[in-house]
Amino acid sequence: MKGWQQYWRQFSLFALLALVLTGCGKDELSALKPSGPVAAMQFDLMKLSSAIMIGVFIVVMAIFTYVLIRYRKRPGQQGIPKQVEGNHALEILWTVIPFLLLIIMAIPTVTTGFALHKEYPKEEAVQVKVTAHQFWWEFEYPDLGVATAQDLVLPVGKKVQFVLSASDVKHAFWIPALGGKIDTNPGQENKLWLQADKTGIYYGKCAELCGASHALMDFKVEVKEQADFDTWVANMKGVQAKEPVTATSPLAAEGQQIFDKSCLGCHAVAGKGGKMGPNLTNFADRERVAGIKAHTPQNIAEWLKDPQKMKPGNKMPNLNLEENQVKALVEYMETLSVSEKK
Amino acid sequence: MSAHASHAPNRSGLWDYLTTVDHKKIAILYLIAGGIFFLAGGLEALLIRLQLMYPEIELVGAKTFNELITMHGTTMIFLAVMPIIFALMNAIVPLQIGARDVAFPFVNALGFWLFFFGGVLLNTSWFLGGAPDAGWTSYTTLALNQYSGIGVDFYVLGLQIAGLGTLIGGINFLVTIINMRAPGMTFMRMPMFTWSSFITSGLILFAFPAITVGLVLLMFDRLFGGNFFNPDAGGNVVIWEHLFWIFGHPEVYILILPAFGIISEVVSTFSRKRLFGYSSMVFATALIGFLGFMVWAHHMFTTGLGAIANTLFGLATMLIAVPTGIKIFNWLLTMWGGQIRFPTANLFAVGFIPTFTIGGMTGVMLAVPPADYQYHDSYFVVAHFHYVIVGGLVFGLFAGLYYWWPKMFGKMLNETIGKWNFWTFFIGFHLTFFPQHFLGLMGMPRRVFTYLKDQNLDMGNFISTIGAFGMTIGTILFLINVVVAAKSSKRAPADPWDGRSLEWAIPSPPPEYNFVQTPLVRGLDALWVEKMAGNKGMTPAEPIGDIHMPSPSFLPFLMSLGLFVAGYGFIYHNYVVVVIGLLLTLGCMFTRSVKDDPGYHIHEDELEEKGVKA
Ligand code: HEM
Ligand SMILES: [Cu+2]
User: Are the CB atoms for B172 and B226 separated by under 8 Å?
Assistant: First the structure.
């Protein structure tokens, strides 16, 4: 039997595969490309533990391969192998060595563990209250007096203290590139701090099965320079203190009428509206539609025509809009911006 | 029927199997039922993988996908691998300890039928309004009425009924192993498979009550508005997680320990050496069983238990690596210096070692809570637990089936097909699950029915799906092998592998009374000891005489059927049906209590005639 040769062939195949796969991975998404101190600490622990484990694996595989080659039964082999009961020295050896390796892992586990569970007061960190809903995310900045949804906006290089909960079922809040993950439990609050060291867009995910569209419960994290962040907050505050502005074009005005009638019950714009669905004050500034699709008029229209198609099981009803109503609404929604213009 | 009938009532075919209390036939029932559920769970897995073959495709919808993952996980754990383990335990443990029977044959049959009807109940949900879709963990509040359909009621009642069967099955094995050992079979002479079955049964005894309690509470929440888990009414969602994992974590060890036992037997037999470090193996098994109860919260690191709890549970979890490592090195040293042969059974056992090592390694990595905040609920975890349950347990079960098939059925499985079976399954397995480690680290959460195009997750998912085809081919080859073996007219010898333990001392398949005379055990590897002493077989510990056997009974079937019927009554809130079902069950219990059934005897002159027929 030449099984071991085949085994090696496979092994090298997997090694190759591993290399290729690690090579890719999207910066905005991958836990292997940390962009902040939390993810970096976690990545260090991953590297340490996988290094130790790969070391162990190499030892096991070395003995394994040697044994399989050396002690295969050969044709015509005579006699019965020596029946060995055991060997106390060896058995103690492979009890003690793993124990020592575990201690090496245990020390940073404990220190990092406690570091990640620190809680930062508002003097040291931006406070963000996260509420997870089927299947969207609500973000409130209680100290800044603004609220948004789907796109989380953060200042670069600053600690952010999250307080998280859920309104319906359990979800989990995960931004792999910034650090992982904490559950949002209905009826309870959890804490998590993160920090982004580079500006840009990061991808966030819901990691706990929460119903049909769990897979689509994505959000984006927009990390801005502090000054830009301050401007954003000021703009948001300005807009959210007011009534919705009257639309500019006639088509948008028509859209606004429909919106006020059919949508404000659930969605807030500026200072008005309900909290059942995402706050749409800065909708036009968002990176994605529904957290998943590119922000284009076609995708907005598609969502309005049949929300269940894009995100099955979500709580927004089909409003049975006509083509021209959809057009007007899209036109209006694209005016919902707090920044100068995209 | 006279009080001491001297003949087994003449039963045959289906009726025989519906009424049997013979542990070897119950083993076959478990194997068939578990095998069918394994195919169902495998089909579900294949559909899951097909849906994820390319980004953003629509093969099954989001809801169906959630049903598929829920049913796949639930089916595989509770209805496929558990029963196949019970099949091997039933077929082999009494033989290994030199017993004529198990301690409670009637209870043994009842255990099977409860499992079977529970599993059938659960699976009928597919046709009766939708399967459960809240994940095999059924976390609340997702699993409450407001957020999920009737499927979860099937989950609750199906698992409750099946779980009762498992619990009493476990108790039966505990008592059997404690009480029914042949003279000289001390605890420290028991084969490793018996040892691991013993410890597994102990874990079942303590773990299953936790899920039973959890399921009762969930049932009250769902059926009667109990609000245990409903935060809007003061309930607490995290309690469910604790109850589930206090059961769920030991469950993982309930599954893997028997596989360890099988690997120990197979590796030692095919190296022609005794197991290296037997006593440390026993100790390690017991320690793993014990630690298995201490670490459930490592499934809940992200739940928000706090730094202290997470750290303690993390460190406790890491400790399990020590006894597990002992086992792996002991297997390697068992082969060291041996004469290793590679029939399919040993290929699976040898393939198990590196595969399970990888699963164990990622397990230690998961035990580091700060890092687990990244791994948790991602594809990394999916890769990890499949390395353990498929690469560990399923490889172990294949090894055990190839090894003991001749003993159970009196036919040898074909080696050529067996080798193809191994290689397709082995390569398919690694192709499927190895890339998933990276998918998880690259940001793919688990239980997602699709993933978006621009996220670099395409290739890993594609490879993974291709691998699933490999495993499918492997499984089909096994089925072909079973058919080929059944058709072949060649009978398996009593001891085809030059075995070491007692089951190889009697014919294949064993007669219904197992041992004509109870054997006298004179050391570890009882049969090997006799072989080395130049004896042709075991020395008997008793003279030949009449053998007492328990009578077959239809009551276990009916008793389970009653609960099955009552289950539907609960699901559809029809309490007349509940009462009818429960009356049937209670009536059977009453009958069993008052009816005097002392069994029958097989006379001396009839011995050596009866064999189990498959
Ligand atoms: C035929 C080979 C198998 C394949 C291709 C396969 C594939 C999968 C996939 C793709 C998932 C869903 C992962 C996710 O998105 O969360 C899954 C989940 C799962 N599998 Fe398997 N699997 C296989 C065999 C098994 C076996 C033999 C077991 C257990 C003995 C098992 C236990 C589980 C469990 C417990 C889950 C989690 C279900 C849940 O999330 O509720 N699988 N499997
Ligand atoms: Cu969610």
Answer: no
Burial class (CB in 10 A: 0-12, 13-18, 19+), A298: exposed
Of A200, A197, A204, A154, residue with least CA distance to A174:
A204
The count of structural domains within chain A is: 2
Query: Same structural domain for residues A197 and A293?
Result: no
Domain co-membership, A189 together with A288:
no
A188 & A124 share domain:
yes
Q: What percent of chain B has pLDDT over 70?
A: 97
State if residue B49 touches ligand 1 by the CB under 6 angstroms criterion: yes
Q: pLDDT tens, A239-287? A: 888 877 777 888 999 999 999 999 999 999 988 888 899 999 999 999 8
Q: Which of residues 221-280 of A touch B (CB under 8 A)?
A: none
Q: Is the CA virtual torsion B300, B306, B309, B315 positive or negative?
A: positive
pTM tops 0.90 = yes
Q: Are residues A236 and A250 in the same domain?
A: no
Percent residues over pLDDT 90 in chain A: 75
How many Å apart are CA B337 and CA B345, to the nearest integer? 20
| Residue A111 forms contact with B (CB below 8 Å) | no
Distances (CA, A) of B574 to B150, B226, B484, B577, B582: 14, 18, 47, 6, 13
**Hey, how many other C-beta atoms are within 10 angstroms of the C-beta on A308?**
13
The residue written with tokens 């239980």 in the block is B447
A258 in any annotated domain? yes
Question: Is 60 exceeded by the pLDDT of residue B6?
Answer: no
Give the torsion through C-alpha atoms of A325, A328, A333, A335, to 10 deg: -170
Domain residue limits at A185: 28-65+93-241
Residue A60 in contact with partner chain B when CB distance is under 8 A: yes
Instruction: Identify how many contiguous H helices and E strands chain A contains and give both numbers.
Output: 8, 14
A81 located within any domain: no
CA distances from B31 to B36, B38, B134 (A): 8, 10, 28
* DSSP for A103-164, written as a single string: HHHHHHHHHHHHHHT----TTTSEEEEEEEETTEEEEEETTTTEEEESEEEEETTSEEEEEE
Would you call A272 helix, strand, or coil by DSSP?
Answer: strand
Chain B, 244 to 273: residues with Cβ < 8 Å from chain A are: 271-273
Identify whether residues A172 and A265 lie together within a single domain: no
Nearest to A67 among B134, B332, B347 (CB): B332
Same domain, A201 and A286: no
Residue range A209-232, pLDDT digits in tens: 999 999 999 999 999 999 999 999
Cα distances (angstroms) measured from residue B568 to each of B118, B167, B606 = 11, 22, 46
Torsion A253-A258-A264-A266 (CA) sign: negative
For ligand 1, whether the C-beta of B76 sits within 6 Å is: yes
Does the Cβ of B430 fall within 6 Å of ligand 1? Answer: no
Q: Could you tell me the CA-to-CA distances from B493 to A155, A251, B346, B482, B518 in Å, in that order?
A: 75, 88, 19, 17, 21
Residues A265 and A178 in one domain: no
The amino acid at A189: E
Residue with tokens 């039997």: A1
How far, in Å, CA of A296 to CA of B427, rounded?
A: 44
Please report, for the domain that includes residue A249, its CATH number: 2.60.40.420
| Residue A265 CB coordination number (10 Å) | 11
Please tell me the distance from the alpha carbon of residue B601 to that of residue B549, in angstroms, as a whole number. 6
- The last residue of one of the domains, among A182, A209, A241, is A241
Answer whether A25 sits within 8 Å of B443, measured CB to CB.
Answer: yes
Residue-wise pLDDT tens digits, B554-580 = 999 999 999 999 999 999 999 999 999
Is B304–A170 a contact, with Cβ atoms under 8 angstroms apart? no
> Does residue A277 sit in the same domain as residue A312?
yes
Q: Could you say which of A187, A208, A241 is where a domain stops?
A: A241
Residues 6+ apart with CB under 8 A from B405: B411, B412, B413, B485, B492
